[in-house]
Amino acid sequence: MRKFTAIVYARTMEFLRDKGTFYWNLLFPIVLVVGFSFAFSGNNDSIFKIGKIGEIPRAENSFLEFSSIEIINYEAGKEEVIEKIRRHQIDMLIDFNEQAYYLNNEASASELLRILGREELVNFTEREVAGDPIRYVDWLVPGVIGMNMLFSCMFGVGFVIVRYRKNGVLKRMKATPITPFVFISGQMVSRFIIVLITSIVVFTGTNLFLHFIVNGSYLLLVLITVLAILCMISFGLIFAARLKSEELASGLMNLITFPMIIFSGVFFSLEGTPKLMQTASRFFPLTHFIEASRAVMIDGAGLVQIMPNLLVLGGMTVVFLLTASFFFRWE
Amino acid sequence: MLIIFVDQWKFCHYFLSMKAIMRIENLKKNYGNIEAVKDISFSIPEGTCFGLLGPNGAGKTTTIEIMEGILSPSGGKVYFREKEIDNHFKQKVGIQFQSTALPEFITVRETLELFRSFYPRPRSLKEIVEICSLSDIIDRDNRKLSGGQRQRMLLGLAIIPHPEMVFLDEPTTGLDPQARRNFWNLIERIKAENTTVLLTTHYMEEAEILCDQIAIIDHGQLLEIDTPQNLLTSHFNGALVRVPHSGRDDLKLDNSILQGDFFEITTKNLDITMKELLALKLNLEGLTIKKPNLDDLFLKLTGESLRT
Predict the structure, then answer these.
(1) So what's the ipTM on this one?
(2) Does the CB of A178 have a partner CB in chain B at under 8 Å?
(3) Chain A touched by B91 (CB under 8 Å)
(4) I need a labelling partner for B306 at 20 to 30 A (CA). Which of A95, A106, A156, B245 fits?
(5) Residue B35 shares a structural domain with residue B168
């Protein structure tokens, strides 16, 4: 235990005193989140999005034919559409079968749409939906934090161990009674603490200005984060098991992390992307972290709803660790 | 010890009767088609300083790293106290590699504490600092150490477990003469604790001063093994005369080798040699006579200078 804590301490000090890496790990995600929140803060609701169920009756000069109004046809799943209104993703839903329309009374567009539809929807009942708008940044923040976690885990463990192997630190360790298991777990725990704290600090820090929507439990978010960090560190260890060249390690890691970031839905939703891409994304730990945290933050999902994601993360961790320990060599 | 020095045969016998702490048997190591070590055997008596000498690429580091358990041999066996080396071995020995990287951004104190944590009964920090004179650099970042300071610190790491034996692979290479002499004092201190030392070096002077026994290897083979004194007396009985050949390098002289612009003549009888030289009418300006040292022996055995 003493050797274990000594390794954790030494590695953590190495990280904290390497000022460049330290600030990069902290500032990069903050800059990204804040930057995006400014970039997408403009109210670009120039087009009203109206969902419809059933057939629109023919009418002269219907407001539904205005060029500034986009009509989206929904066949079924009325509940989901109402959820979209709640999140301000569409502005209105007209159900021609039931002669009813839905508006979000907290959206600025609702008043205007109510007036526009006054004549045509005269016999319709109005049903109100309540809910704060989901800004892009609310949706983005789990993605950015997840991306930062991925970088920090892959490079902070995988890359650093390759460097240790190349410059001979591992060889010196081999000459002591320490076992690879103790040494590597020490590295993992140090990085785990660093990434968990960084992620919490980044979230809390940006939350002070941006007030993210968190409909679910904070504890659940921490649980997802813990599992995801373990999974990503284990993934990085696979690269650390054998490689001797830092250039090769860095190249391979970039080759893997970039597709992960693009196809895990960090910046845009995977809805509507090709089936193949969606299937591929199921194999990335990042996808499961982002999906679960968004579900908790935005939809207020509970443990049961995100259980599949948590199980996948746990399972991947075990597979990655077994692979890494099978291939590991000091030199 | 005095009597032993007087009688070389007794001295040899003294070594043979001592218990070997470490023994290697028919050690071989191949890297692909290259045979780095070809069938080397020797044993190291407990409590002595054993020097492994050879030019660059001779197989010194490969041999010592197999003995440390870092490399696995292609053939042969390594015994520590008559048992093949196992996991416990690492708790009983201290190792200093030829070049060792240290974790960055941590201080000498933190590094020592880190390595102390690896051993069941480590030496106290105070004792290590005292033995290796580390007090002035104890809070310095590893990256900011000079060559000599760094070697002192690495020796500090090697002596943490109260080792029964330490392996020092070229510990003084690249140090200035002052730092090298300081390091010799540290090795003497460790020897005084009855710790066995296995040392590889480029410097003959170092081997002469520190080592009780010397093995000279080249091209992966053992050329000679004995005490420095025995090696010198058996190879050079007398004096070494160096005389410029003044362009007459085609002359055939007994017991001489051509070394640059000089003949180097090993002679038992200086009187006769001088008369011979005079008879040859060689220009004797620049002639020197000295007692041969290990450098000369090395040259004779390997045909190359150590410091190349």
Answers:
(1) 0.77
(2) yes
(3) yes
(4) B245
(5) yes
